[in-house]
Amino acid sequence: MDDQTRVEWRDWGQDAFDEAAEADAPVLLSLTATWCDHCHEMDAETYAEPRIAANINDSFVPVRVDVDRHPRVRDRYNMGGFPSTVFLAPDGTVLTGAGYLGPDGMRQVLDSVRTMWQTKGSGAGRVPRPLREDNPPAGRLTSDVESAMLGQLTEAYDEVAGGWGGSPKFPLPDALEFALKRDREMALRSFDAVSANLLDEYDGGFYRFAAERDWAGLQHEKLLDSNGALVRAFANAYLLTGKDEYREPAERTVDYLTTTLWNDEADAFANSQAPGEDDAHTIDATDRAAADEPPVDEGVFAGPNGLAIEGLLTYHAYTDDERARRYAERALETLRNDLLEDGVAVHALEGDVERDADGEVTPLLANQARVLAALTTTASVLETDALADATAVADATIDRLRDGESFLDGPASGAGLLERPLRPLDTNVALADALLELAVLTGEERYREVARETLETFAGASDRFGVQMARYATAVSRLLEGPLVIRVAADPGTDLHRAALRMADHEKVVVPAADDLKAGLARVERGDQRSDTAETPAELSERVQSVLE
After folding, report:
1. Domains of the chain (ranges plus CATH)?
2. Structural contact between residues 543 and 523, judged by C-beta atoms closer than 8 angstroms
3. Which of 38, 197, 281, 304 is deepest in the core (most CB within 10 A)?
C-alpha cells in the first residue's frame, strides 16, 4: 500500500502515541484498505510528494492502519470512508479529520493542524460522540419496530432506480431480506436493480457500491463480506420466487468466491479484490480477457469467512449445489481448526494473534457474531456436531464481551481511543439474531433471553434507525412472534430434511436430528402452535401452510 510514499509510517500501537507525547507533536493517522482505489491514489499523489512527506515526517508522528486488519481502530476513527486522514492528540483524541486529500488540500490541513496544536495543544482534542455516549436508550420491544422499519424502507425507496436512498447507492442485503417478507414487490425491484447494476457480468461477484443515485459511478472493489451476504440474500429471493433471475446472480457469485477469492494455500476465502491500476472492470470483454487480473488481498479473516460460509450453505440448502457445499466445508474446517480457540475467533489467519494479559485470544464482537451465524447455519444444513462449537462461541462472547445487557466490540483496552467502550448496533443485532437461532437449535432458553435483553438495550432509539439497520427489525420480529421452526427427526441430507430447508420462509429455523419426535417424522412450530407430524415432503408442505395461515 505505502511503497510509493515518502512518509515514515509507524505501526499502530502505544509506542507511536508515546513518541508523539515525548515530541509534543500530533499523530497523523492514515486509515487505508488494500482494495481502496482512492487510498492508492492518495499515496501516489499526496504522500509521495517530497515536501509534503518531509513536512509530515518533521512535525507529526505518522501512523498507517489497514482497516481490515484493525477494525476497532477503523470504527473509532473512520471519517466516513477510506482513505480517512485523522489528526490526533497524543492521548488519542481527535483534533480534526478528512477523507481523501490531494496535495493542495493536504498542505492547507497540515498548516491548520500545526497552528491549532501550537495554540491549543491537546485541549483541542475531542472524543467522537459514539464513544462519549456509552449507554444507548433502552425500551420495550413491540410490533411497532417492524412497522416503523417498513415505513422507513417505503419512504426511502427509489421508485425510479430501485433500491433505497440517494447517493451513494449500496446493495443493503439486510434490507433486501427484510423487505422480501413484508413488501415483496419493493424487494424484488430492488434485487433487480442490485443485480443489473452491481453484478460483474464478466467475472461474477458484486461491486461494493455505486456513487450516484441512478447506480452510475461504480466502485469496482469487491469485498468478501458483502458478497457473502449477497449470496445469502439472492438465494433467499430464489427460495421465495423460484425464479432463475435470482438464483443466477447467487450462482455467479459463488463461482467468483470459489475461484478469484479462494486462497488455496489457506483453504479459505481471501478478503477482497481491488479495482486494479487501470480499472480492468471498465474495459470491454475482449480487452478484459487480456488485461492483468486486479490484485487480491489474500488475507483470511474470521468474520468475512463466516459470512461467506453462511451464504454458500444457504445457497446449497435450496439448490443442492455441490460446489457451494464443498467450498463452504473447506473454509469451515479452516475456521474451526485454525481460527477458533476456546470459543474465540482469531481475527486473522496471518500475523501475530492478539492476546490479553492472561494469554487468551482477544475477542472481537463482529467476528464472534459472524462465526456463530456460520455455525448455526452449518448445524441446520449440514451437521449437528457444529452446535458444540456454536455453543462455545456464544458462551465465550457472553462471558468476555457482555457489559450490562449489551455487548462491547472488544475489550476496552489498547492504544488511543481503544480504551473507550463501543457498543456497535449492527454487530449487537447480528449476535442477537444468531443467538435466537442457537436457542431454537439447542433448546437453551438462556440464549433467547440474552438476545431479548440485547435488542431491548437499543429499543429506545429504534424509531430513528435507518434502512441500514433493517436486521434489527427482523430480529425483533423473530423474537416477538417466534420464528417458524421445522423440527425433523432425520439426519441432514435426507429428503425430509432437504424439503424442510426449502419451505418458503427464509427466516425459519430447521432443526435436524430432533430427538423429541419419532424417527422419520417432522413437525412445524411457531410460538404456541404445533402442527400434526408429517412423514413426507408433501405432508410437511401442508403442515407449514396450516401454521402460516
Report:
1. 14-131 (3.40.30.10), 143-481 (1.50.10.10), 482-548 (3.40.30)
2. yes
3. 304
